[in-house]
Structure formats: C-alpha cells, structure tokens
Amino acid sequence: MKRFGLVLLAVMALVVAARPASAQSIRWGLGAGVLMPMSDYSDVDKMGFVGALGGTYNLPTGLGIRADVSYGTTSEADGIPAHTTKILGGMASLVYQFGAAGPKPYVTGGLGFTNVKVDDAGSTEFTYALGAGVSFPLGTGGNRLFAESRYTTVSGDGGSLKYVPIVVGISFGK
Questions:
Q1: pTM given for the model
Q2: Measured distance CA(64)–CA(35) in Å, rounded
C-alpha cells in the first residue's frame, strides 16, 4: 500500500508540473458521506461512513484525470458476530464533465487498489469503479459543491466486495 501511495503522489506531482497556463485547471476537493454495502457485503455489514480527498486535472475538452484517496468503515449487521470493516483505497480515474457553466454533471471511471481490513485481518486488492455526480458553483470564487456516487468493486481471491459510497463535498480551484 505504501508503494501505491508513492506512485499516486508522483502522478499528482507530474500533473502539477506539466500544467501550462491555458484553460486547463486543477481542482482539489474533500468530501464525506455514507458507504452502502452491496451484494453479499450487505448481508454481513450495515451502512457506514466514508471520507475522501482528491485532485482533478481538467483539460479544456471537459475530460479530467483524477487521483483520490478514500477511507470508509462499516460494522456488522444485526445477528452477525461483532466486527468492524475498514476500507482504505486510492484510485486514478477519468472524469468527463458536461456543460461549461452553472451546474456540471459528470461521469467517472477508475482503477486503483484498496486495503480491506476486517478486525485485524486485511489484504490489499485491485479495485475498479464507475460513477456519476454533479457540481454546483458556490459564489464567484471558483469553489463548487459536489455530490457523487460510484459503484465500486474490490476484487479478491475469496470473491469481490461491492459497495456504493455517496459523497457530498466541496472542491477548490479554477
């Protein structure tokens, strides 16, 4: 997981260093919300919480490259032996925004790695996600309020863990 974090930081540094002064921009954001277990995961865990932090390099075409990190936690459903599931993941995604001004809907899809830990046992696995969101301008300073959700699958040897984080947050930048 440390190696993935270093790669993620290196990619973000290259994006910042390669940024010309044209209509391209970088936005940073943070958000929080709920994590809804899906499929078999919902049989053993109930809804939990998630927090996320990321940056997006936006091209003038509406396409963007995003790197983000998220942390979520869920706990046992009724009648299941007590446990806590902790999910820490990093993802690189493509984002496509529709519209030039006002509310901007977008779609996103990405790949990454996620560490899933149930009590003290955990492993880091390949992850992919597809989602959508919308952002709204907050005044004239360039800040935006966003809401998004991504159907996320963590693929492991013992099957896959599927969940949907629903995140609301604020992004800063041009």
A1: 0.81
A2: 25
Q: Determine the pLDDT at residue 120.
A: 80
> pLDDT by residue (tens digit) across 26-80?
999 999 999 999 988 888 889 999 999 999 999 988 899 999 999 999 988 776 7
SS3 23: coil
Nearest to 74 by CA among 88, 64, 91: 88
Cα 17 from Cα 90, distance rounded (Å): 21
Give every CB contact of residue 82 below 8 A, 6+ residues apart in sequence.
75, 76
Q: Could you read off the pLDDT of 90-135 as tens digits, one per residue?
A: 999 999 999 877 899 999 999 999 999 988 888 899 999 999 999 9
d(CA 172, CA 174): 7
CB 146 within 8 A of CB 27: no
For residue 4, give the 3-state DSSP assignment: helix
Helix (H) or strand (E) holding 66: strand 63-75
Q: Answer yes or no: CATH 2.40.160.20 is held by domain 2-173.
A: yes
| DSSP percent split of the chain into helix, strand, coil, nearest 5 | 10, 65, 25
